Amino acid sequence: MTTATLLAIDDDQDILKVLKANLELHGFTLLTADSLTAARAILADRRPDLVLLDLMLPDGDGLEFCCALKTLHPNLPVIMLTAKDRVSDKVIGLELGADDYMVKPFETRELLARIRARLRPATPPQQPSILTAGDLSLDLRNQVVKVRGTVVALTPKEFQVLTCLVENRNNLVSREEIRQRLWSDAKLYAWSRVIDVHIQHLRQKIEANPTEPRHIVTVPGRGYRFEE
Description:
By secondary structure, the chain is an alpha/beta fold. It is built from 8 helices and 14 strands. Strand 6, helix 4 and strand 7 form a beta-alpha-beta unit. The longest helix has 13 residues, at about 15-25.
């Protein structure tokens, strides 16, 4: 029996009522908030297992809230609920840390499937909690990166991209491999430079000379390779 607690943040009371009726019918406990202020009050006392987040809210930007939430709780799944169907809006939301998105109106069965997929326990990683490569150290459990002993602040996606490269150190990792591994809807990024942008940001943060990178090396036309 499902016992997960979800938090739905949406200023449309009708949507909240429908979500509550349908999700609780399938065994979930649903907390609801019609504003970011109400959501913050709930999160101060409760830790849901997953958040359903509308992007258009009366007292703030759902995208900014998502970014802040994932920074504090990187392992908390967030599914965006949005009336916007533009690829750019989806890409921005996913780049800021959202795990998935649903465009309104949506089918309850599809939402349930996506919720269950995000709540499904991941296969325990068969890797150490600390990765070291050259002058870098990655704490996978706490998502902390140190370069030459100094902590470097990375976004959740930057950390994931760097981890992917370090785990495959000295081997080519194609853009498609990174895209398929790290984004739930890789098709959105088929013609996007999102991977290259993340690589540029990582070089600025971890390389001694970003214009002549020693660690994150470009393999022209193919992808990237992390060299120790």
